[in-house]
Structures are given as structure tokens and as C-alpha cells.
Known about the structure:
Blueprint: H1 3-36, E1 41-42, H2 45-65, H3 76-96, E2 106-107, H4 108-138, H5 143-161, H6 165-186
Amino acid sequence: MTPAASDAFNYLAVLFSIIIGLAVTEILQGFRRLLLTRNRVRLYAPAVIWAFTLLLSLSQTWWAMFGLRHHDEWTFGMYAAVLLQTVILYMVAALALPDQPDGGEAEMRATYYEHARPLFSLMAAAAAASLLKEWVTEGGVTPTNLVFHLAFICATVLAAVTRRAWYHQFLAPAAALFYGLYVVVLFNKL
């Protein structure tokens, strides 16, 4: 890698890292709110599991972006594709553990389903943006990565359109395990 390529990546990585850091902050602040209001909030397991899964996703995204350091030349399209993914992930983080109503007892389950359609639509969009990023930066998508992403997109699109509790209660832990497997299989090393 030439010094100029390293400088370009370092320059661009600052904005990506800031956005991912803000997304992590959103999730951590959501957990903080839950701790502070624990006597007034009735937890809903799928929301909490998704928040942890999103922390894993944000960590993996930041880890995977380090692989882009080898690119000698950056185009605005490459930059925009990476930026798009991070921006969408930030929006997902903002909805993962949204504010609960002030005063009285809050029902996390109701808040979860109130935000389910935009949350899962954005998750599907983030996965699509991840595929776009790989296609633009690498010139194609690896088959294993494509399979993982398409399965995730299908599952989250279905979650966006259904309010069936059994599906959401199944999907949250299944997605956490699936995402953990994804990280181990494809991103174990830099």
C-alpha cells in the first residue's frame, strides 16, 4: 500500500468511524435509559436482543471497513457507497431502543411494534447498502456474503410487514445467532 493510499483511507475513515461511533452511542444511551427507568419499563426481549445484535453489526462493519485500506484510488461512488451504509446503520441504531414515554409505566413491546416497520425496512436497506458497498469497492460480491445478505434482507422485510409476535420473538435470537455465524465465517481476520 502506498503512503498516498493510506492517507486517503485514513482521511475517509474518519467520517465513517464518527458515524459508526455515534450509532454505537445511540445504542448505549438506549441501554442507559433502560437502566435508569428499569422500574417503569416492561422489557421486551426482541428489542433488547436486536440492540445487542446491532452492536455486533456496528463492530463488524467498522472491522470490515479496515479492509478498504488497501484501495489505492478512491472514487466518489466508492465513498458514497460506504457512507450510505454507515448513515443507514446510524438510523437503525436510533430506532433500536427509542425513547420511552415520560412518566408512568412504559410498555417496550408497544414501542417496538410502533417502530418495527421503519426499523426493519432500514435493516434491509443497510444490508442492501452493504452489498452495494462490496460491489462498488471490490467489483463484485462474494457468493457466501450474498447468501447471508439475501437471507437477512428477506427476514427483515418480512419483519417489517408482519406484526406477528411469534415471528419477532423467533427472529431476534435467530438473527443474533445468524449474524454471529456470519462474522465468524467471513470476518474472523482482517
